[in-house]
Protein backbone atom coordinates (compact mmCIF):
# COMPACT_ATOMS: atom_id res chain seq x y z
CA UNK A 1 0.00 0.00 0.00
CA UNK A 2 2.79 2.41 0.95
CA UNK A 3 4.65 1.58 -2.26
CA UNK A 4 1.54 2.34 -4.36
CA UNK A 5 1.07 5.66 -2.56
CA UNK A 6 4.71 6.56 -3.22
CA UNK A 7 4.40 5.74 -6.92
CA UNK A 8 1.18 7.76 -7.26
CA UNK A 9 2.81 10.75 -5.54
CA UNK A 10 5.79 10.56 -7.91
CA UNK A 11 3.51 10.39 -10.95
CA UNK A 12 1.49 13.34 -9.64
CA UNK A 13 4.64 15.42 -9.11
CA UNK A 14 5.92 14.55 -12.59
CA UNK A 15 2.63 15.67 -14.14
CA UNK A 16 2.72 18.93 -12.14
CA UNK A 17 6.32 19.65 -13.17
CA UNK A 18 5.55 18.93 -16.84
CA UNK A 19 2.54 21.28 -16.72
CA UNK A 20 4.58 24.03 -15.00
CA UNK A 21 7.44 23.67 -17.50
CA UNK A 22 4.99 23.82 -20.43
CA UNK A 23 3.34 26.96 -19.02
CA UNK A 24 6.73 28.58 -18.41
CA UNK A 25 7.84 27.90 -21.97
CA UNK A 26 4.56 29.21 -23.38
CA UNK A 27 5.14 32.51 -21.55
CA UNK A 28 8.91 32.95 -21.90
CA UNK A 29 9.25 32.04 -25.59
CA UNK A 30 6.86 34.76 -26.93
CA UNK A 31 8.47 37.38 -24.67
CA UNK A 32 11.98 36.48 -25.83
CA UNK A 33 10.81 36.45 -29.44
CA UNK A 34 9.41 39.99 -29.13
CA UNK A 35 12.71 41.19 -27.63
CA UNK A 36 14.61 39.54 -30.45
CA UNK A 37 12.26 40.86 -33.15
CA UNK A 38 12.56 44.43 -31.86
CA UNK A 39 16.19 44.53 -33.11
CA UNK A 40 15.50 43.26 -36.63
CA UNK A 41 15.32 45.06 -39.97
CA UNK A 42 12.17 44.89 -42.08
CA UNK A 43 13.94 42.65 -44.60
CA UNK A 44 14.35 40.02 -41.90
CA UNK A 45 10.56 39.83 -41.52
CA UNK A 46 9.28 39.98 -45.09
CA UNK A 47 12.20 38.78 -47.22
CA UNK A 48 12.04 35.48 -49.07
CA UNK A 49 13.30 32.51 -47.11
CA UNK A 50 13.43 34.46 -43.86
CA UNK A 51 13.36 32.47 -40.64
CA UNK A 52 11.19 34.13 -37.95
CA UNK A 53 13.23 32.37 -35.24
CA UNK A 54 16.60 33.51 -36.55
CA UNK A 55 18.67 35.93 -34.49
CA UNK A 56 18.98 39.52 -35.74
CA UNK A 57 21.75 39.98 -38.30
CA UNK A 58 22.62 43.26 -36.60
CA UNK A 59 21.11 44.96 -33.56
CA UNK A 60 18.91 47.78 -34.86
CA UNK A 61 18.87 50.20 -31.92
CA UNK A 62 17.37 52.73 -34.31
CA UNK A 63 14.03 50.93 -33.90
CA UNK A 64 13.84 52.14 -30.29
CA UNK A 65 14.98 55.64 -31.22
CA UNK A 66 12.28 55.84 -33.89
CA UNK A 67 9.63 54.51 -31.51
CA UNK A 68 10.59 57.02 -28.80
CA UNK A 69 11.06 60.10 -30.99
CA UNK A 70 9.10 59.78 -34.23
CA UNK A 71 6.20 57.83 -32.72
CA UNK A 72 6.28 59.97 -29.53
CA UNK A 73 6.46 56.88 -27.32
CA UNK A 74 8.63 58.85 -24.91
CA UNK A 75 5.81 61.31 -24.25
CA UNK A 76 3.28 58.50 -23.91
CA UNK A 77 5.67 56.73 -21.53
CA UNK A 78 5.95 59.82 -19.33
CA UNK A 79 2.16 60.22 -19.26
CA UNK A 80 1.73 56.59 -18.18
CA UNK A 81 4.34 57.00 -15.43
CA UNK A 82 2.61 60.13 -14.09
CA UNK A 83 -0.90 58.64 -14.24
CA UNK A 84 0.12 55.29 -12.73
CA UNK A 85 2.12 56.90 -9.91
CA UNK A 86 -0.72 59.31 -9.06
CA UNK A 87 -3.29 56.51 -9.16
CA UNK A 88 -1.25 54.27 -6.85
CA UNK A 89 -0.68 57.11 -4.38
CA UNK A 90 -4.37 58.04 -4.32
CA UNK A 91 -5.35 54.39 -4.01
CA UNK A 92 -3.07 53.67 -1.04
CA UNK A 93 -3.93 56.93 0.75
CA UNK A 94 -7.62 56.01 0.63
CA UNK A 95 -7.54 52.20 0.77
CA UNK A 96 -5.14 51.73 3.70
CA UNK A 97 -7.10 53.75 6.31
CA UNK A 98 -10.40 52.35 5.01
CA UNK A 99 -9.20 48.75 5.16
CA UNK A 100 -7.69 49.26 8.61
CA UNK A 101 -10.88 50.82 10.01
CA UNK A 102 -13.16 48.18 8.50
CA UNK A 103 -11.04 45.29 9.75
CA UNK A 104 -10.08 46.47 13.26
CA UNK A 105 -12.98 48.60 14.56
CA UNK A 106 -16.71 48.26 15.11
CA UNK A 107 -18.88 51.28 14.30
CA UNK A 108 -22.33 52.15 12.98
CA UNK A 109 -22.71 51.59 9.27
CA UNK A 110 -19.79 49.16 9.06
CA UNK A 111 -21.91 46.38 7.54
CA UNK A 112 -23.34 48.75 4.92
CA UNK A 113 -19.85 49.90 3.93
CA UNK A 114 -18.62 46.31 3.72
CA UNK A 115 -21.53 45.37 1.47
CA UNK A 116 -20.92 48.43 -0.72
CA UNK A 117 -17.25 47.63 -1.15
CA UNK A 118 -17.95 43.96 -1.84
CA UNK A 119 -20.55 44.95 -4.43
CA UNK A 120 -17.89 47.02 -6.15
CA UNK A 121 -15.95 43.84 -6.88
CA UNK A 122 -18.63 42.85 -9.39
CA UNK A 123 -18.62 46.15 -11.29
CA UNK A 124 -16.41 46.18 -14.38
CA UNK A 125 -15.20 49.70 -15.00
CA UNK A 126 -15.20 49.12 -18.76
CA UNK A 127 -18.99 48.71 -18.70
CA UNK A 128 -19.55 52.19 -17.29
CA UNK A 129 -16.92 54.10 -19.23
CA UNK A 130 -19.56 55.88 -21.34
CA UNK A 131 -21.47 57.22 -18.28
CA UNK A 132 -18.14 58.36 -16.85
CA UNK A 133 -17.34 60.23 -20.06
CA UNK A 134 -20.79 61.84 -20.15
CA UNK A 135 -20.46 62.87 -16.50
CA UNK A 136 -17.04 64.47 -17.08
CA UNK A 137 -18.08 66.23 -20.28
CA UNK A 138 -21.25 67.46 -18.55
CA UNK A 139 -19.17 68.86 -15.69
CA UNK A 140 -17.04 70.73 -18.24
CA UNK A 141 -20.13 72.28 -19.84
CA UNK A 142 -21.76 73.21 -16.54
CA UNK A 143 -18.64 74.89 -15.16
CA UNK A 144 -17.42 76.27 -18.47
CA UNK A 145 -13.99 74.67 -18.17
CA UNK A 146 -11.89 72.03 -19.94
CA UNK A 147 -10.59 70.49 -16.72
CA UNK A 148 -12.30 67.11 -16.42
CA UNK A 149 -11.32 65.64 -19.81
CA UNK A 150 -7.77 65.07 -21.04
CA UNK A 151 -6.54 65.53 -17.48
CA UNK A 152 -3.97 63.09 -16.09
CA UNK A 153 -5.05 63.67 -12.49
CA UNK A 154 -8.69 62.92 -13.32
CA UNK A 155 -7.66 59.75 -15.14
CA UNK A 156 -5.60 58.70 -12.12
CA UNK A 157 -8.57 59.42 -9.86
CA UNK A 158 -10.81 57.20 -12.02
CA UNK A 159 -8.24 54.39 -11.89
CA UNK A 160 -7.88 54.67 -8.11
CA UNK A 161 -11.61 54.79 -7.41
CA UNK A 162 -12.31 51.82 -9.68
CA UNK A 163 -9.72 49.73 -7.82
CA UNK A 164 -10.78 50.60 -4.27
CA UNK A 165 -13.05 47.59 -3.75
CA UNK A 166 -10.45 44.97 -4.61
CA UNK A 167 -7.67 46.76 -2.73
CA UNK A 168 -9.74 47.25 0.43
CA UNK A 169 -10.90 43.63 0.27
CA UNK A 170 -7.31 42.37 0.02
CA UNK A 171 -5.85 44.72 2.63
CA UNK A 172 -8.64 44.26 5.19
CA UNK A 173 -8.29 40.49 4.91
CA UNK A 174 -4.60 40.81 5.80
CA UNK A 175 -5.20 43.30 8.62
CA UNK A 176 -7.64 40.83 10.20
CA UNK A 177 -4.88 38.25 10.52
CA UNK A 178 -2.59 40.53 12.57
CA UNK A 179 -2.65 39.96 16.36
CA UNK A 180 -4.33 42.65 18.43
CA UNK A 181 -1.43 42.55 20.87
CA UNK A 182 0.58 44.86 18.62
CA UNK A 183 -2.08 47.56 18.83
CA UNK A 184 -2.56 47.10 22.56
CA UNK A 185 1.18 47.48 23.13
CA UNK A 186 1.17 50.67 21.02
CA UNK A 187 -1.79 52.10 22.97
CA UNK A 188 0.00 51.42 26.26
CA UNK A 189 3.03 53.31 24.94
CA UNK A 190 0.80 56.31 24.27
CA UNK A 191 0.23 55.95 20.53
CA UNK A 192 -3.09 57.14 19.12
CA UNK A 193 -5.11 55.39 16.43
CA UNK A 194 -3.45 57.19 13.52
CA UNK A 195 0.11 56.74 14.79
CA UNK A 196 -0.57 53.08 15.53
CA UNK A 197 -1.82 52.56 12.00
CA UNK A 198 1.09 54.40 10.36
CA UNK A 199 3.93 53.20 12.61
CA UNK A 200 2.82 49.67 13.52
CA UNK A 201 0.10 48.18 11.36
CA UNK A 202 0.99 49.47 7.88
CA UNK A 203 4.66 48.31 8.08
CA UNK A 204 3.43 44.89 9.18
CA UNK A 205 1.08 44.76 6.18
CA UNK A 206 3.95 45.35 3.74
CA UNK A 207 3.53 42.02 1.87
CA UNK A 208 -0.15 42.74 1.26
CA UNK A 209 0.57 46.34 0.22
CA UNK A 210 3.19 45.18 -2.29
CA UNK A 211 0.69 42.71 -3.71
CA UNK A 212 -1.84 45.51 -4.18
CA UNK A 213 0.81 47.73 -5.79
CA UNK A 214 1.86 45.02 -8.23
CA UNK A 215 -1.66 44.02 -9.26
CA UNK A 216 -2.89 47.59 -9.62
CA UNK A 217 0.27 48.73 -11.39
CA UNK A 218 -0.36 46.09 -14.04
CA UNK A 219 -3.98 47.18 -14.30
CA UNK A 220 -3.22 50.91 -14.56
CA UNK A 221 -0.21 50.53 -16.84
CA UNK A 222 -1.98 48.34 -19.40
CA UNK A 223 -5.41 50.01 -19.27
CA UNK A 224 -6.65 51.18 -22.68
CA UNK A 225 -10.41 51.78 -22.89
CA UNK A 226 -10.77 54.50 -20.23
CA UNK A 227 -7.60 56.31 -21.32
CA UNK A 228 -8.72 56.21 -24.95
CA UNK A 229 -12.15 57.59 -23.99
CA UNK A 230 -11.27 60.46 -21.63
CA UNK A 231 -7.83 61.49 -22.93
CA UNK A 232 -6.89 63.34 -26.11
CA UNK A 233 -3.49 65.04 -26.18
CA UNK A 234 -2.04 63.41 -23.05
CA UNK A 235 -2.49 59.81 -24.18
CA UNK A 236 -1.00 56.99 -22.14
CA UNK A 237 1.41 54.35 -23.38
CA UNK A 238 -1.31 51.77 -24.08
CA UNK A 239 -3.13 54.19 -26.43
CA UNK A 240 0.16 55.27 -28.00
CA UNK A 241 1.14 51.65 -28.57
CA UNK A 242 -2.16 50.93 -30.28
CA UNK A 243 -1.64 53.89 -32.61
CA UNK A 244 1.98 52.87 -33.23
CA UNK A 245 1.00 49.30 -34.10
CA UNK A 246 -1.68 50.51 -36.51
CA UNK A 247 0.73 52.89 -38.31
CA UNK A 248 3.78 50.61 -38.41
CA UNK A 249 1.79 47.54 -39.41
CA UNK A 250 0.44 49.46 -42.39
CA UNK A 251 3.97 50.65 -43.24
CA UNK A 252 5.36 47.14 -42.54
CA UNK A 253 7.83 48.53 -39.99
CA UNK A 254 7.62 45.49 -37.73
CA UNK A 255 10.87 46.15 -35.89
CA UNK A 256 9.59 49.54 -34.65
CA UNK A 257 6.27 47.97 -33.70
CA UNK A 258 7.95 45.30 -31.58
CA UNK A 259 10.25 47.93 -30.05
CA UNK A 260 7.10 49.69 -28.83
CA UNK A 261 5.90 46.44 -27.27
CA UNK A 262 9.21 46.07 -25.43
CA UNK A 263 8.98 49.64 -24.13
CA UNK A 264 5.62 48.76 -22.58
CA UNK A 265 6.83 45.46 -21.09
CA UNK A 266 10.11 46.59 -19.51
CA UNK A 267 8.63 48.54 -16.52
CA UNK A 268 6.35 45.62 -15.69
CA UNK A 269 9.23 43.13 -15.73
CA UNK A 270 11.48 45.42 -13.68
CA UNK A 271 8.78 45.94 -11.03
CA UNK A 272 8.10 42.22 -10.76
CA UNK A 273 11.82 41.42 -10.38
CA UNK A 274 12.11 44.04 -7.61
CA UNK A 275 9.13 42.86 -5.54
CA UNK A 276 8.89 39.12 -6.24
CA UNK A 277 10.73 38.16 -3.04
CA UNK A 278 8.59 40.44 -0.90
CA UNK A 279 5.40 38.99 -2.38
CA UNK A 280 6.29 35.58 -0.97
CA UNK A 281 6.66 36.91 2.56
CA UNK A 282 3.29 36.39 4.16
CA UNK A 283 4.52 36.65 7.70
CA UNK A 284 4.15 39.65 10.02
CA UNK A 285 7.15 41.87 10.63
CA UNK A 286 8.46 41.82 14.15
CA UNK A 287 6.88 39.93 17.02
CA UNK A 288 5.48 40.06 20.50
CA UNK A 289 7.61 39.43 23.53
CA UNK A 290 6.36 36.79 25.86
From TrEMBL:
It is found in: Cell membrane. The keyword Transit peptide does not apply. GO terms for biological process: transmembrane transport. Residues 77-275 form the ABC transmembrane type-1 domain. It is a multi-pass membrane protein. One of its GO terms (cellular component) is plasma membrane. PROSITE patterns: ABC_TM1. The chain crosses the membrane at residues 12-35, 76-100, 112-133, 153-171, 209-231, 251-275. Keywords: Cell membrane, Membrane, Transmembrane, Transmembrane helix, Transport. InterPro entries: BP-dep_ABC_trans_perm, MetI-like, MetI-like_sf. Its main location: membrane. Belongs to the binding-protein-dependent transport system permease family. PANTHER family: DIACETYLCHITOBIOSE UPTAKE SYSTEM PERMEASE PROTEIN NGCG, MALTOSE TRANSPORT SYSTEM PERMEASE-RELATED. This is Carbohydrate ABC transporter permease. It comes from Candidatus Mediterraneibacter caccavium.
Amino acid sequence: MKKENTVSKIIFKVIIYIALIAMTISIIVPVLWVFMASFKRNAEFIGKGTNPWALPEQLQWQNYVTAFVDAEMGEFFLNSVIVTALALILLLVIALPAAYALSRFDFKGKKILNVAFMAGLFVNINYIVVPIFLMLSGANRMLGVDFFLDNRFILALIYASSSLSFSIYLLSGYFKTLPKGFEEAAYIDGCGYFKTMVSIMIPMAKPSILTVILFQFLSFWNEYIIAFTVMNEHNTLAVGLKNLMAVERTATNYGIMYAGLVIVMIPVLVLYICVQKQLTKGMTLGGLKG
